Fold this protein.
Amino acid sequence: MSSAELAELSDKLMLSTVVLYIVAMVAYAADLGFRRRPADAETGAEVEVETKTKTKAKVEVKVAAGVGGRGGADAAAVAVDDRAAAAAGSGAADADDASQRREVDWARLAVVLNVLGWGAHLGVLVTRAAAAGRWPWANMYEFLTAIAFAAVTAFLIVMWRSGARFLGAFVMLAAVVALGVANIWLYDSVGPVVPALNSYWIAIHVSAAIVATGAFTVAGAATVLYMLKSRREAKGGAAEGVWARIPATGTLDRLAFRVTTFAFPIWTTAIVMGAVWADEAWGRYWGWDPKEIWSFVTWIGYAAYLHARATAGWKGRRAAVLSLVAFAALLFNFFGVNYMFSGLHSYA
Amino acid sequence: MSDTPDTTDAAPPGGRASAEVRAADDARADNETRAADDSRAAAAAGASTPQGGEPAPAGLGVLGWLRWGWRQLTSMRTALVLLFLVALGAVPGSILPQRGQAPERVADYFEQHKTLAPWLDRFSLFDVFAAPWFAAIYILLFVSLAGCVIPRAFQHYRAMRSRPPAAPRNLLRLPQSASYETDATPDEALAQARTLLRRRRFRVDAGETPGAGGWVAAEKGYLGETGNLVFHLALLALLFALGIGNAFGYRGSVLVTEGKAFANSLAQYDQFTPGRRFDSGDLAPFSFRLEDFTATYETKGERRGQATDYVAKLRYRETPDAPETRYDLRVNHPLNVGGAKVYLINHGYAPVFTVRDAKGNVAYQDAVPFLPMEQRTYTSEGVVKAPDAEPEQLAFYAILWPTAVSAKDGKQIVSAFPAALRPVVTITAFKGDIGLDSGTPQSVYRLEGIGKTLHPVKGGQKLLEPGQTFTLPDGSGSITFEGVREWASLSVNHDPGRLPALVAAILAVAGVAASLMVRRRRVWVRARAAGDGRTVVDVGGLTLGHPTSEFDDIVTALRGPRDAAGESGPGAPATAGSGGADASATEPKE
């Protein structure tokens, strides 16, 4: 295939990706919204999650037993982990056979569409790379496309490992918005890179930045949910409607934390590798270029979050706010710095 | 705790014990350490009144206040606030132009904001990263960090050398616990536990509690705290490396035209920024000549005219008597010479002109660097100054069109491509006093005093191709456009802190990864004979952060295949605290 044909294929795959993600988003939302569940699911979810510490677990078991008994606990397992659902399903199925079956369908549809979209997304990057004969993240369009890919990948991994399907609708929304922005405002045809980007460091530095940004996006989605859920819990009306299908604040908090602890060292690596590259390309390893400043601000923000989460009086909502501030700095670093300031990273 | 002063030496001075960096620490560990901190605080307060032997009720005294201040500074809350301030303080550095990066844009800002700019300058907002207030924040932050991390490093060192802590009395109260019966004797069961835990790379100790039987204590995961400490100490090292680079290094930039040479001495630089401790004797005595500069551009497609490669062919000597070596200087491929690095930063055109005065004498002959006006076409402008021309000095303003074509209206010229495929210059001639004799420095890219001391020559405008000469209509001289050369601007940079900074950065990354991935785990095993000739084995686990499935694996391995069917003591399920193997298996380490 010629370069032009590959580029065209890449653009067509992009369209398929967006369509698949949109449908997957709807399916995830339906999974959250239309699934009928016992009212005590909330408490049950608590059990699954809080069994980490013995004392808490005992308390939660009592609560669950009081409110919903065995059915509640089983339903909670459904919410948190599909595999657990398969094991525990029979119990819940007694409670509501028909709706259980429908629920599995929505979820399965969403996951299948998501994986198909992910495959198309991978195809977008591969064909783009083949068409250009280089790493496919050398301009803002490609960079944002790759970040969306990393975010979806991170979500699929998190879903596979800890069954966080509830995040699906939100991550799909973020991916669709990112791809929309990339296609509408940032689209750029396939072409060679400026000499400064012609280095193997693009494979290291930019890839690390993409992976970290993708993971931070998933952590950000979990943190936003945490904030909304904890506000509802504070008001006392937690376990109704969609909210019942979103796990307890403890799970969300821990999920966000776990993904952040994965992303933070990678982000650190991205900054360090960027410094090494800057030393090769620009003659200094750190020069307070706007991009460097905002990477630093983002790094400090997440470092503060990690510290705050281990500090009495700061964990919980305060730490979550720090995490969101850091995520905002990350987004600003991507959009604001490239379009508002002129600096050495202005390649777009 | 008590006020006894003698406890102070046991406690590190003001540790930010609350798991400062240990983001993975959970509430329990946090509370434990904080409680320890409180007792330390009480001890410290007690120690501040050594003469009386009793705490002063009204005030703490100078020493007490110092200790209090130190504990505040090294507390987690202060560190968080300082982290936040560093981030916040960095922001204006990205919004306002900075002298260190773009002094010319700072000057522009002063022009445009005549009242605001001096005020911003008073707060060093154009030199944010060299500002006293910024330095104050990060120095406080690093002192706070050092005050926490260094005592913790000693603590950790001691902990690594000491034996694992003895088994608590009731293992079943620990966050993770299990109990089972076995046919083996207590000694056999304990020996088996020791072997198993050793094989799992735990540090193992054993002992006996009178009345409660023998126990095995095991601990592992020191790498987490080690990584944590390495990370923070590496950050300190990084700051020092930056400081060394700033103090002893230098950075200079120089514009070299094809065919010209450069020797590394202060006089040859266009711009030179030395470190505070820099000595001009530190300049390595290398020299180089720019043989040729080539820029390659995309010739087809939508990106026509985009640069794809730059090469500056150099011949350099490490020392004046060293042999000459060739080097192709490219972006991303700096030249290492004499401990300094030479970088290719920018490029442009330098048309060559010969200026003759009214008498026909050559008043000027050289390549004149022009500055690009736009990157896409590389249309460039520059001036030629011929102060030696007689009777009147001559000056020319010129625009170079690298690939000249006529514009769509057919009247004007534009450049269609950045490479010099069909170079053309348009000349505007001036005569009079250039102003160089006054001694005030002038830009070599601009004419000054136009309309005052320097007057345009009537009919003195002309388009020239290479080789063509323009004789000024008033007979005051002529100018010949000989051809086009290229210039490259190079940056020479010596930074002795570069390598230490790299080492520190690598240690920091390795440290932070270890600290977020590895956690300290403790496991205790107790075995005692039950009445019926069997042995009851209790296993307890304590993990910083949230429990992992490792404990369940250990218990399963300890019980062995024959007991796996699972008879557990009444009220104490096999894996009481961990919520079942399935749940914890899906819960990777935090």
